[in-house]
Structure formats: C-alpha cells, structure tokens
Predict the 3D structure of the following.
Amino acid sequence: MWKPEEKIRWTPEIGHLPDTEERAASLLFSPLDAGRLHLRNRTWVPAMVPWRATEEGFVTPAVLDWYGRFARGKPAAIVVEATGIRDVPSGPLLRIGHDRFVAGLRDLVARVREESGGETKLFIQLIDFLAIRRRPERQKFLNRFLAITDAHRKALAMPGADDESVRAALIDLPDAGLQKVLDEREYESLAMGYRERVTDTHLPHIAELPAVLPGLFAAAAQRAVEAGFDGVELHYAHAYTMASFLSAANTRTDGFGGSRENRVRLPLEVFAAVRKAVPDDAVVGARFLADEIVAGGSGVEDACYFGAEFARVGMDFLSLSRGGKFDDAKQPKVGGAAYPYTGPSGYECMPQYISDARGPFGRNFAATKAIRKAVREAGYQTPVIGAGGVHNYEMAEAMLRDGVADVAASARQFLADPDWTLKLETGHGADIRLCEFTNYCEGLDQNHKQVTCKLWDRVQLDEPGILKSSDGKRRLTAPDWKPQ
Ligand SMILES: Cc1cc2nc3c(=O)[nH]c(=O)nc-3n(C[C@H](O)[C@H](O)[C@H](O)COP(=O)(O)O)c2cc1C
Ligand code: SF4
C-alpha cells in the first residue's frame, strides 16, 4: 500500500475509560431514534468483505461465524459486506442477484438475531461493479487483445500494413515507444489490465446502466427484506459503479453525467426504485464518499450537495467513507488485478499507523462534519454515520459531541476486538484489544484471502469447533471473551 512521505509512527491508545455515570451521560451509549432508524446506541460495524462466500456467492458456515462473532459484541448495527446485485459470477463475494441466494441470507439474519439477543440491527450493502481484467502479459496483449486500428498504422508509419505486421512492429517497440503509439486507454489496458468506465457509452451494456440499475437494486433490496434484514445500504462509494456516476470524472452526455444535478440523477433514481420496492419500515441508506481524493474527482463540496439531495428524497442514513479509487491504484503484477486501495486515495480510505502529521485517526472527520452541517442547514435531520480510525471511547464520544456524526462506525477496531464497545459498556474497557492499524487485514483482502486480524488469528488454534483458513494456519474468528 502507498504511504505518505513523512512516515510518522502513530500508536493507538486506549485513552480515558468512562465510569458508570459517564456512560449513562454519554452520546455513544445513548439510543438513536431518527425516522426509520432506531439503534440501541451509536456503535456501528461498517461493511467489511471477509472473503468467505462460496465461489458462487452463497453464504457459508464461515460467513455465519463471521457475522455471529460481531453480533456477540452487540453493536447497535452491522452492515453486511458489499453484496453483488447481479446474477453473474464474481468469485467468493456474497451475492443477492437471484432468489436462490435468499435462503442463505435468511440463515445469516437468524444467526445475528440469535447471537445479539435481537439487539443488533442488520443491514446489507448492495453493490454493482463494472468489469475489470487482470494485467495481461505484454506479448499476449499485443498479439491477441489489442484491436489494431489505422491510428496505430499511422503512428508507426505503416499505411496499409496488415494486422500481423503491425502487431510485430508493436512487440518490437520499447515501452516508451509503445506508450506513444497506443492511446491512453489502450496503454492502461496493457499496463494495469482493462477496466470499464461508466463513460464507455459506446458499449451497449454501459449505455443502458441508467435503465437497468434501478430495477436490479430494487429487486436485490426486496430479497434483502425477504431474508429478514432491517434494511439496505446502497453502495455509492469507492471504486464502483454508483460512485463513478457521482464522480466529477463522469462526463456522460445522456443526462446522467456532467453537472452535479445530472451525476446524482441515477443514484436518486436507484433510491426511488428501492424505496418503492420495500415495505415502509425498511431502512434504506447509502454509503458515499466525502472526498474521492483523486485528481479530477468529486470533493467535499460535491458531497455536501449529494448529502443534502439524499436527505431531501428521504434516505434513512448517510454513511461517509473516503477515497478508495482505481484511478491512482498501484500497477499490479502481470496476472494480477488492480486494487483500489493501493494508492493515495486507498490510503485515505484505510489509513495505517505509518502516516503523516495528520495521522491515521479521524482523517475523514472534517469532511464528514461539513457534509452533516450542509444536510442540517438544508433542513434535514438524517443521521450521519462517520468512520475512519475510531478505536477508543474518547474519540468516538468526541466525534459525536463535535457534530462530526450521529453514529460512530469502526471497521478495523471491531475486527481486532468484536467486543470492544460491549467491554466499554459493561465497565471492562481495560480488556479491550486495540487495533494496531498495521493493515495486515487489508493485505489479506487485497490478495482475496480470508480476512483475519493478526492480534488473534494464531491463538488457541486447538479450540474445539473453530473454523480455520484454507491453509489451516489461522482461526477465522476472534476467541470468545468472558467478563471476569
Ligand atoms: C477487510 C476490509 C474490507 C472492507 N470492505 C468494505 C466493503 O465491503 N464496503 C465498504 O463500504 N467498505 C469496506 N471497507 C472499508 C471499511 O468499511 C471502513 O470504511 C475503513 O476500514 C475505515 O474505517 P476503520 O478505520 O474503522 O477501519 C473494508 C475495510 C476492510 C479493512
Ligand atoms: S490486522 Fe488487526 S490490528 Fe492489524 S489493522 Fe487489521 S484489525 Fe487492526
């Protein structure tokens, strides 16, 4: 992963632990009742892909264990990982694009209800993504994948040459020369692997996204409700289709790109279709970017506008993330796929302990606060979910008090210790296992390996009944905690 130049080492601290009175007076442990969203307190596990589904996208015993383990910590809400809304193969990522997935998801809901004693609300993140291919081997790309055009013949001064001669000439060129002959997208396909954009409207399936996505999201949301989820989180963040529609880089000319009003149009249409498809008490929120952190991308001002629009149409919560784009991703190895958390924007999404003077904790707070303020000034009380390095009581309470957010979400701290807020709540804060923000977990995610935490995945490996990673070396869930 990319790291800032300064390379300052930051150490998470447990900080002040609240006593009974402080807990009773805290915002973190006070209920939230805002429209359709009712939470027992302000703790939240945001979406995290653990790579535990079957190759066909079904729930497995390991998926049940993963969510069951979080549920034992009784957070107010868990958002199930990004789950594909289409009925297409996508490796071991959960899917919800067909009725055959509902039974497994129903088991997941039952497990969370049981383990949390019904105290945890359960949402599922609905995602659509476009095609991305692995970085090709140079010769194979130039011999097979590249479509030879007259632009290549012209650049090589080979008018009328047949395709085979042009390919041979291209193969002989050094990379610098090749970069001059291929256009930007062709060179990117060679260097990074081919990747579709929402602006590729010459491709019929991309042109028709605005026509098909509302229906696909709505059908997926219906299935989520059928499986028993309390609601859905529309994935409008990071490197995926809906975030690309919101992006300032979206120059579509069909009314769904260009101005902010046009860029937000499809996300609003998707929401309207979903809202119509689910019962009135189902919660429908979205996760979107406070800042894309890439040149030419959307910034905080855009996000303030989007937030107010999402609130205006009646979204039940707004969850803010940051960065995580393909645009500045590292070049993958030949045969590997680009990963949107390897460049500077990826760092902003999941900053690690080696950081700059701003540090890895709360990097998205200022932007999140500005968006919440814009939503309030527009006259809406829609709850805002904030995240980014939240790992202790002081930090979580301060973000709620300072108006950054209404709910404090932590991904990696919950992965490090699924009971951390329960420990605080029950006066056992000293038992908390603090996340070190080393991003070992993120490295596993990047390699499509079952995600675990380095603080617990090699302990008590002989515990009866636990599930282990495919190589048998790691346990897949944190050991249980019993209050002393
Ligand atoms: C292993 C892993 C998988 C993740 N998967 C998702 C995901 O499916 N959807 C999403 O919106 N964010 C995902 N994230 C981002 C987190 O939800 C969160 O925004 C990010 O880790 C920053 O919060 P933190 O500092 O509390 O970890 C993932 C993070 C990790 C570490
Ligand atoms: S592996 Fe564990 S300690 Fe390291 S960043 Fe991930 S959750 Fe935190």
About this structure: The pocket of flavin mononucleotide (ligand 1) is lined by residues 46-49, 81-82, 125, 237, 287, 321, 349-350, 387-390, 410-413, 441-442, 445, 451 (CB under 6 Å). The mean pLDDT is 97. The longest strand covers residues 77-84.
